[in-house]
Design a protein that fits this description.
Largest sheet: none
Number of strands: 0
Amino acid sequence: MSNAIQEGSSTNVVNPAAETVVVAESLTQSLGKPEDPWKGSGQALAARLDKMDAKYDKMMLKFKDKIDDLEGKKVEGTGIIQMSYFSYLFFIFVLILVGWMGLKVVGTLSAPVGIGTSIVSGGVKGISALLGKATSEIVKGGQAFKERVDKEFEDPEIKAKINDIFVSSHKESQSTDVQNLVKQLKA
């Protein structure tokens, strides 16, 4: 356009060119700046746009042909996503089962996860069995400690002092609930 003004072109050429610039700037603002600006001629660009428009029209005709047999029919509820509630429940169950199996596999590699899955799969019975086993092992360990003290030390004062330290350490680490339970069991 600046060339047309410099050459002294008539307003019949300059005005449409100025209007074209205004429209092009507005179009650029609404669509966004092109990633790859067109460097060819205006005629080549128009031909390219016509070709793309024809390709779009052809695609729309193909789509129209596909949906013509659905014209006037109820489409709702015919999609692949439509399932019954039982199907949803089944898929949720399968997801939980797969997650559980994954935890069991991870449990073979990680001791805390393995203990957790064992407790959950055993339920309350499994938890009480595990706690009972842990308690009996702790008691056996304490008895083995006392027997070893009796074998290793001959002086009765040293034995008594070690046993007192052992018993007081246990009592200090126990909660008041456990201490009350032990007192009731001794009575």
